[in-house]
Amino acid sequence: MRFLSLVFPSSPxxxxxxxxxxxxxxxxxxxSSPVESTVTHVSSSSRYPLHMDAAEEALRRALADKQTAVExxxxxxxxxxxxxxxxxxxxxxxxxLNALKLEKSSIEKQLQDAFSSNGSSSAVSxxxxxxxxxxxxxxxxxxxxxxxxxxxxxxxxxxxxxGCAVKSNVLAFWRQHFVLEENMLEVDxxxxxxxxxxxxxxxxxxxxxxxxxxxxxxxxxxxDHLLKDFCKEKLEKDLSxxxxxxxxxxxxxxxxxxxxxxxxxxKIKEYGITAPDTKNPLSDxxxxxxxxxxxxxxxxxxxxxxxxETAQGIFVNFKDLYYYNGNKLPFAAAQIGQAFRNEIxxxxxxxxxxxxxxxxxxxxxxxxxxxxxxxxxxANLEFLMFPREEQMSGQSAKRIPLDEAVxxxxxxxxxLGYFIGRVYLFLTSLGIDKERLRFRQHLANEMAHYxxxxxxxEIECSYGWxxxxxxxxxxxxxxxxxxxKSGVPLVAHEKFSEPREVEKLVxxxxxxxxxxxxxxxxxxxxxxxxxxGEKEAMEMKATLESNGEVEFHVCxxxxxxxxxxxxxxxSKEKKKEHxxxxxxxxxxxxxxxxxxxxxxxEHSFYTRSSKAGDEQLNVFRFPPLVAPIKCTxxxxxxxxxxEEVAKLISKSLTAAGISHKIDMTGTSIGKRYARTDELGVxxxxxxxxxSSVTIRERDSKDQIRVSVEEVALVVKDVTDGQxxxxxxxxxxxxxxxxxxxx
Amino acid sequence: MRFLSLVFPSSPxxxxxxxxxxxxxxxxxxxSSPVESTVTHVSSSSRYPLHMDAAEEALRRALADKQTAVExxxxxxxxxxxxxxxxxxxxxxxxxLNALKLEKSSIEKQLQDAFSSNGSSSAVSxxxxxxxxxxxxxxxxxxxxxxxxxxxxxxxxxxxxxGCAVKSNVLAFWRQHFVLEENMLEVDxxxxxxxxxxxxxxxxxxxxxxxxxxxxxxxxxxxDHLLKDFCKEKLEKDLSxxxxxxxxxxxxxxxxxxxxxxxxxxKIKEYGITAPDTKNPLSDxxxxxxxxxxxxxxxxxxxxxxxxETAQGIFVNFKDLYYYNGNKLPFAAAQIGQAFRNEIxxxxxxxxxxxxxxxxxxxxxxxxxxxxxxxxxxANLEFLMFPREEQMSGQSAKRIPLDEAVxxxxxxxxxLGYFIGRVYLFLTSLGIDKERLRFRQHLANEMAHYxxxxxxxEIECSYGWxxxxxxxxxxxxxxxxxxxKSGVPLVAHEKFSEPREVEKLVxxxxxxxxxxxxxxxxxxxxxxxxxxGEKEAMEMKATLESNGEVEFHVCxxxxxxxxxxxxxxxSKEKKKEHxxxxxxxxxxxxxxxxxxxxxxxEHSFYTRSSKAGDEQLNVFRFPPLVAPIKCTxxxxxxxxxxEEVAKLISKSLTAAGISHKIDMTGTSIGKRYARTDELGVxxxxxxxxxSSVTIRERDSKDQIRVSVEEVALVVKDVTDGQxxxxxxxxxxxxxxxxxxxx
Lengths: 742, 742
Hints:
In chain A, 38% of the residues lie in helices and 23% in strands. By secondary structure, chain A is α+β, with helices and mostly antiparallel strands. The first copy, chain A, starts with 53 loop residues before the first helix and ends in an 11-residue tail after the last helix.
């Protein structure tokens, strides 16, 4: 195998896609694509396979049109709200929007049905695959349901020894890849957060899910979950249902995320949905805040919460951090830490939990200049992107050069593009399969109103495409919110090299004349005049100059008054300014570490036959960077001499800082290899003489002979990334006798 | 300076104790020892200086006697409680104990007064020193009061960029020094903890402080703090006080920690202590639980707490971890994570906070064999220890070889000794001054009743001697508590190589005969018979054999019955046992990371004159291991060529994984050195040519010339600990021209 050009950590046999290669003799494989058994290429999106027939083509075109209409109507609704249109007018527009959404999702469903013939069998293999991964993870203590001996708490998990090591490797690499590389300012803020901070950020008012209660037992459920479960089950089991009814239920499923409390409640009533455990009637849906609440100090008067994200700790420190950075932009701050969400009913195992580790970056930048000095270093990357337009027109995610996406304006700006590129490099270095990683742009109606652009790094796993990293341009929203609430200006200054002349509007009400005309109302009129914007003021000036008076609506008085020429002086004055004061924009890449790790577990897992062919063995193909243990050491047979050599090697590995495990049990060498493969240990050192030993690579099973003194050095070189296994294969003699033990 | 044997990181000038060397031109120095200005050696304990006069000697002897009496009486009280003595008897003994304590503390006070002549001036310099450190720490953002723009929350702090880097360096070293070195099983459990777990551990019932409330405003205070402040102020300000009154107040201060809620309350009433802010009357003291309480899930019915320590997460996982370790003892599990204590009124800045990082180790060991395989590696260490006996007899901490302490039984066992040694190595490697580090043994009455032995690593800082690491042999307490509460046996098994014969007691009540004799009471009699211990049963057997019957007290019936020979068969049977089942002991080193870091800040801080002598400059002498930034790079003058070289060096440092900072400002090189010294950056690279540059070491200010290509390599070597600065000094030419800039 030496002649093969081998890129570690893939084995030379796995050039084809690992999950689907028959050579690897896989037991578990799944794909939501209907073509899994015939191609080794995996569709980039489960929703949008590559080949279509004519009927499908027609449906797809209809869907694209409908989506454009939805987008158009959505924009119209937002514009009406901004312009302050009347409520009945808005309501009508919203109704139209919902109707369009229903039509859209109806077409979507037809489309799905059109190629879901083998959908359920694929779901079965998906579940079997997941079960195999999860069984291995639990058995080898990658994670443990927390407080298991007390029957646990839903949504809380411990990382056991190998999981904890993977996590700390991922975080160490995150620090190296982001914090060190960009000279970011890392901070570490408490989890306990006073209410005022989360009031300002909007979490106290808006961080909610809709909940219903069992009216007798008080048990709580997520309203949308119940409705979803009801619709799904009905569709699956009630085959006598009318086509209209089925369409309706499908429509409900499609628009589930957008339903208001009122609509959710009326649907639950209409369908007669009851509490799943007791069949008791349910309360109306009402918002439940997802933050864990507590009390700071002994008085019980100072409310606090466990932070739902780490970002706020950075925002409130902006002023100090800006100063620390020499009052210069751009700069980034970063934080790794626990965050908490008191989910109503956690599902999806490790993906939706009540406490999790976030790693967040807040990159502060001048809103007028979002270029990035190191952008060129990632500009040539090419990977799966799923821009808004492609989603709207029913196409699939496609491979786009990053530079093209940025220059064509698909990605809003260079800095956002830079971080998308860096996130891609980060995830793929960890071992995330680049064919099952895509960057999906938020649709206009998915984004917060203040966001300039937002992309999610989504990783495909057995639960579907999972949002693992969000990369958002949040504009000036957060800093402004804290400025308003705290009264402390969180702003940046740009000093001009020489003062600049600017025109400033000056409105000078003549109080004497106003007082004579408006008496007690004078103050309100003065304030209204002073509050005018430039356009309004200049129009008033023109009218006063031509007509001598002007009608003026004073909203605090609720009436129109007449302003005469002598009552106010409006002018533009030239001023010299020495600096520009502005609120920076923030670009926020936010990493759900637990989700990334779970997807990594799935992407790294495969099975292969034991040598005898009588057993399927589990392997995690973690790159050395991620592997919880870098190396196992075992004597070939139980023998004092070999054991002493093993201890010596263990000592040299410790000195070199290599995490390793020593296995002195008399178990067969094959069983010991299997144990270590199942933990994803990349290298196994077998002591079969006192002078030299073999090192075996996990995926290729290639072995080399290395002298006892050199072992730690070789392992360190390969795990630190100084050498690849290929380099090492060339450097040392291979150990050809595939021992009887495998 | 090349000829000096230089041990990095101390400067060659600082052979004498750093805080007191006049050569270093220190502005801030303090010591609680009265002899600070004349000796360079620092007393190992502020309480027990080395030289005494005759009066002091007499007092000290009296104190020693009294302490022995206190200890004796304390043991007596405990024994009486264990034996279930009558209440009046116990009360009398407790009263006697308190009287002895008062007498003891009276002598202690006299002793303190005897040499407190310059006590207050030393307190002033201590405060000034602390203020200087804290000012620097806050100004350079080592830490920031959390949520500062909202006027903060007492007891919550953020680590700013350099503080966060120090923290992550300390934790990375902790992982290397403990987890990797011992192959510990690191786990990562949630902070949110259900009530049942903390009920079992005792925290729900016992983790409290006594609190009083302002009866009008509801403001809360720690009862002992108020009493302490009152006594201290009174003693300082009321000079007309009678000797008796003064003695009484001093006694109160001495026994403050041991006062019950009732006594505290009556003292507060007696002294007329009111709320400090309002002078309103205060409530009686009552216990306030220090855990942050919350609710898990939406129902509000499932109470949870933010964990007050990380250890419980390990204990509840014992069974899985033992299995993971191949069902073998000893092994250790470890955890790093946040812990929370809702302090009533946090004081002492960074030392007593409401949220902090703990690093805890639980080493599980066979109670019958507490030897440690690597003990010999630390046995020869010698450092300041403060055994119980020395504390009782009024001596000071003294330098004891660890092996002596273990072999003489001062330290309870080898494993405990091993960890004490490892903790010593850990702390001193970080830069903790070994002259201000001592291991203090808990007095018998300080320890929990179940603890076998307990030592605190105490570090002296401006707040006094601070407990930073606790190293306790907690015996089987925690595992037993969770076994009892959960019903899941948390035990270990020792398989015998061959079955062992053991004698087992067999009690077989003859139900027919008992039924005839006792009718409805039969069940109670049977149970009482079966519950007999070995001794009681064998006595009964003997009596039955000699007398044919025996009087037997059945406590559930509340009366004595007569048991006849035919009613019960008592025998001893030989059985073969294949294994021993037992609850392991746990030895727990628990690290308060924030406290260690704060003490490290104080121990690392010094000031020195600027070259012109017109300014005092701050320096942190962090070892490279700990330093937040390893290296600064600056061009000597602002010049395109030099800036390009600086960028090149920065790139090579990033590639080598060295955290660094680039300073392109035109500020004088002296100012830039001062800035970087104040952050504790050990090396500064000055670009003054395009081929070679100077590297300057922070404390010695020695400079060497190194080629541009080699810079990253040299810095990496020294920061990784591969070379020392001395090595490097020999290897490269020194740069002798001390530039005009320093």
